[in-house]
Amino acid sequence: MKNLPAAEKKTKRKSVKPIPDDAFTNKQLSLFQGFLANNGDERDELSNAIDLWDCIPRYSIPRKNEEDLRMPGGFLPIRKIDFKYRGKNYIAQIRPARIDIKDKDGTPTGTTIEHYPSAREELIEHTLRKLATEQKAGFFDRPDYRSGVAFTLHRLRSELAKNGHAMTYKGIVESLEILHYSYLAIIDAESDPRDPNMISQPYFPALAKVNYKKRKSDPDAKWFVQFHGLVTDSINQITYRQFNYQRLMKCSSQLARWIISQLVLKYTQASVTNSFQIKFSTIKRDSVLLNGYSRERDALIAVDQAWDEVKSLGAISLIEKVDERGPRGRVIDVTYTLFPTGEFAREQKAANRRRINAIENSLSTQDN
Question: Taking the chain, what is the end-to-end CA distance rounded to the nearest angstrom?
Fold first, then answer.
């Protein structure tokens, strides 16, 4: 696909094979896990934002809206969502996961239902990416070009709860299945519509589960997920950025999380003297989180509330709004001018330095 890394064109699924020991300790992985921080407490607050991957509206269909779309037999339609990335037009095509309906004891009932990945799955993916920055948990297997994380279900659940997102084991397992069985295709909207450039892969191409009986007998038994190829490519190409993961996880709204991700990836030169502008129309188009509002006024209120949350969490110090009005004074767009806090500016400066150091370190290793 034009303007995307060549490695992202690999779409063929491979059978799951054991992860070699050196996949948990290699240099490229250590760069992904090595944050620029003053102390251990600061390091614990950090994770990695993934360029391109975190710009795709892949969790933009709320679970509460599924019933309005559901067809007989529990089926959901394939959704196509337009978005922009670095000035180019793309389409995210989401195929929902079809999973077993289970009774209260966890036994399949014989019926199935489909779900799109939504906010719950987003939180779990962010948490797993955080766990992948821990020693002996994350892996990067260059020969088979895959990355991911090994973890216990208890560790995942504890990390979610620590950040205010308590979930049941049943809910977490269901979300992991949804992430494994849902397919995401990224289509180049500027290529031939009859035969477009496209990459397609499950959100998690591989999942190794530990059943309830095994978990009871061995609480330390490890689950395993393989991250999407775009995450693997980011680790390989060093296109990720460190950011304040705890701030993002404290967000109560999905739109506030989206805004923080975009600021991390796009407001890279943040300083107290350097503002950043974004339009309401851009937020609506690229987040796709405002499509459920029947009235534009309500969508504008939702954005204001998201800005208030981002501001309360210490990323933005001041937000200036300029309304663009049409006939009869109706607001047709809004330009938001943002000024960062000193804390966010320092975080972005550290992220820039860390990325430069990682690239230089990677190049020096290749030269040797």
Answer: 32
CB 261 within 8 A of CB 240: no
CATH architecture of 251-368: Orthogonal Bundle (1.10)
153-10-86-325 Cα dihedral, nearest 10 degrees: -70
366 confidence band (pLDDT: 50, 70, 90) = low
Nearest to 147 by CA among 1, 20, 274: 20
Tokens of 40: 């251990």
Q: Where are the domains of the chain?
A: 1-8+17-244, 251-368
Compute CA 233 distance to the chain's CA centroid, rounded to the nearest angstrom. Answer: 14
Rounded CA gap, 15 and 31, in Å?
A: 27
Q: What pTM value is reported for the model?
A: 0.91
In contact, 221 and 214? CB cutoff 8 Å: yes
In tens, the pLDDT along 34-54 reads 999 999 899 999 999 999 999
pLDDT single digits (tens) 290-305: 998 989 999 999 999 9
Task: For residue 250, give every residue at least 6 positions away whose Cβ sits within 8 Å of its Cβ, in sequence order, or none.
Answer: 163, 164, 313
Percent of the chain residues topping a pLDDT of 70: 94
